[in-house]
Amino acid sequence: MDQQTLTRESEEFLEDLAEELSVPPSRYEQAERSYKSLGDWLHRDASSVRQYGPKVYVQGSFRLGTTIRPANEAEEYDIDSVCEFQKLSKASLSQQQLKILLGAEIEAYRKAQSMNKPLREGRRCWVLDYADGAQFHMDVVPSVPNGQSARILLETRGLDARWTATAIAITDNECPTYTAVTEDWPRSNPKGYSEWFKSRMAAVLERRKRMLAESTRASVEEIPDYKVHTPLQAAIMILKRHRDHSFEQRKDEQPISVIITTLAAHSYNGEETIGQALVAILTGMDKHILRQNNQYWIPNPTDPLENFADKWAEHPERAKAFFEWLQKARTEFAQAARSSDRSLITETVGRGVGGSLADRAARRRQPPARPTLLKTASVAPANAGLSFPDRSRVPTKPQGFGGAG
Fold first, then answer.
1. Which of 64, 192, 276, 304 is 20 to 30 A from residue 373's alpha carbon, by CA?
2. Quick check: helix, strand or coil at residue 33?
């Protein structure tokens, strides 16, 4: 893949687009305050769960730095968090008992904070709705540590267990064993996934934090991750918005964020610009979709027994939709990447991410006046080297995946 055909104008536009999508630092700080405040509540003297070592932390896109600004005022930020009871285990209570235990404390917290909206129960979590003006809600998933079980499970099957130290067992009220005291709980590992994700961009992240530290005369340790964005994070944000816009009319078919994030992180090779990262990601995404027992398989990097594409078997239209979306993204970004014409770039990318967003990105940087003698061709020739694979690659059967059906 020839990265040279990315024009300066297309790179600048993608930078501005990522800025438009970026969540203001105040939102990251608000998320942090919210889960810390709940954590403090669970540790207060009168807490009924304090002795179980509750630890509240953020997971999902806020943890990964890939959250995008809502498309409009009606949409909310979804802050995903976990409450891990470090001194409880699967042997000591059922999923249902754990959920009720945490629910009672969150309800007391809601009342103490004078939050008007009632506490909602989700399938795996409790949902706290903040006031209308706040424009966010927080999902809290009850959990217990599960590192040892996860490690044994993967090692006995000859699978990679290096991320299992932070594994947790979570509640799910649709799980057949929800009301039983059993070892059989749904598994998760948000901290492990976040560490895997960071490992895919470690050098770039470290370099950018160091540059920011030098410019602000701070130490690298003082710079929180959310203050810098890597090309991988920016590319994922752009692809998520492209996905949202492309599937506005058929939301149930849209590729889930963890699939986009996982395939993008696998395909990223430390590229230094957003455009180069997008080329690498869009070129390589489908190479990391495996086929196993005639089924699509996108393994969770921290738990290869979990298949992020498990719903594709019962909903084949979702697999079809993913490959159609990938082709659409390849076509649009390739066309934009070759162009030096800012209005053409805006229009082309706007087809995928929404016209008003593309226009806002374009306005962030008014073009400098250029002497006419230096004008370059507005569109590079069609064969100028930026080419994505013509069709999606047929996934192969994974090697070393014994017994992961």
1. 276
2. helix
Strand 120-121 to 77-85 pairing? unpaired
Per the CB < 8 A criterion, the answer to whether 29 and 67 are in contact is no
Rounded-to-integer distance, Cα 159 and Cα 304, Å? 7
* Model pLDDT for residues 241-299, shown as the tens digit of each residue: 999 999 999 989 999 999 999 999 999 999 999 999 999 999 999 999 999 888 999 99
Q: What is the rounded distance in angstroms from the CA atom of residue 317 to the CA atom of residue 379? A: 36
CB 304 within 8 A of CB 48: no
Rounded to 5°, angle at Cα 228 from 224 and 232: 125
pLDDT digits (tens, 9 = 90+) for 303-333: 999 999 999 999 999 999 999 999 999 999 9
**Hey, which residues does 187 pair with through a beta bridge?**
169
Alpha carbon distance 198, 207 (integer Å): 13
What are the backbone angles phi and psi of residue 190, rounded to the nearest 5°?
A: -60, -35
pLDDT at residue 98, as a whole number: 97
Paired tokens of 330: 């390849």
What does DSSP say about strands 187-188 and 290-292: parallel, antiparallel, or unpaired?
Answer: unpaired
Residue 29: the pLDDT is 87
Alpha-carbon distances, residue 76 vs 34, 94, 135, 169, 253 (angstroms): 15, 32, 5, 27, 21
Largest Cα span, the chain: 78
Closest-CA residue to 308 (of 266, 368, 343): 266
CA distance 46 to 23: 36
- Give the pLDDT of residue 2: 47
The CA distances from residue 60 to 140, 192, 203, 283, in Å, are 12, 12, 22, 25
Q: Could you give the 3-state DSSP secondary structure of residue 305?
A: strand
Tens digit of each residue's pLDDT (9 = 90 or more) over 130-184: 876 678 889 999 999 999 999 999 999 999 999 999 999 999 999 999 999 999 9
Element (H, E) at 97: helix 95-112
Give the strand pairing for 168-170 and 187-188. antiparallel
